[in-house]
Amino acid sequence: MERVARVEGDGMAGNCCGGSCGSGGGSGRPNAGLPKGGRQADYRRTLRLALLVNGLMAAVALAAGLDTQSMALRASALDFLAAALTHGVGLWMMGRGLESRGWATLARGLALTVLGLVVVAATAWSATAGTVPDAPVMSLVALLGMGASLSVAVLLFAGRRGGLTLRAVWLCARNGVLTNAAVMMAAVGAWTMGQGWPDHLVAAVIAVTVLSAAVTALRQAVAELRAWHAPADPTGLGKGA
After folding, report:
1. pLDDT at 1
2. CA separation (Å) from 186 to 139, 177, 221?
3. What global pTM score does this model have?
4. Which one of 5, 9, 40, 136 is most buried, by most CB atoms within 10 A?
5. What is the rounded CA–CA span in Å between residue 123 and residue 5?
6. CA 199 to CA 13: how far, in whole Å?
7. Cβ atoms 101, 20 nearer than 8 A
8. CA nearest 47: which of 10, 13, 92?
9. Cα–Cα distance between 23 and 90 in angstroms, integer?
10. How far apart are CA 115 and CA 200, in angstroms?
């Protein structure tokens, strides 16, 4: 008898980077809930484009964050990377089963946890050192990030009310816009006050958000792997039968 995970879909939709974007939600069947035929090919192209845009913005935000000494931009790079990993894992998972999805989700969750902790530690060090970022450059990169996130959001707009998987990708794009808006606010605060704490505050909030998503992914992965390795019930009635 086929074993499936008892994982709630709505919880994954609430936090895009904690879900299995592109993997078919909580079902143990490969591609469950995904578009069929030509629509699935379009869906793959959409995920590839989302992966490319978010991956490029992660690199741009990281380089700019290092150049401007902005922790908020580095945290934004982490957020873009989290979205890119979500899309990439979703693409890789198409056509694969529950166990593979569990291991992929576990790997993504561990990677985001480590990187999130690195950003938190770096933010604490920067705050202690009293670093003040280059606000004008911060604003420009944040504006670019908002444009990139909006472009992905527009691309995925038609599917925002579709199945769980596509809705999760839509939430990633929406969250990217909010993240970069926060970075712009940090830049304005740093410029007007001449202090770095607005930048550090926004960086900490973004990093904690990504860490929360990573924990969600880890919990999901553990649930899926346990469901896969649990002994099958030959009666199909469960233990309470």
Report:
1. 38
2. 9, 14, 34
3. 0.77
4. 5
5. 38
6. 29
7. yes
8. 92
9. 5
10. 16
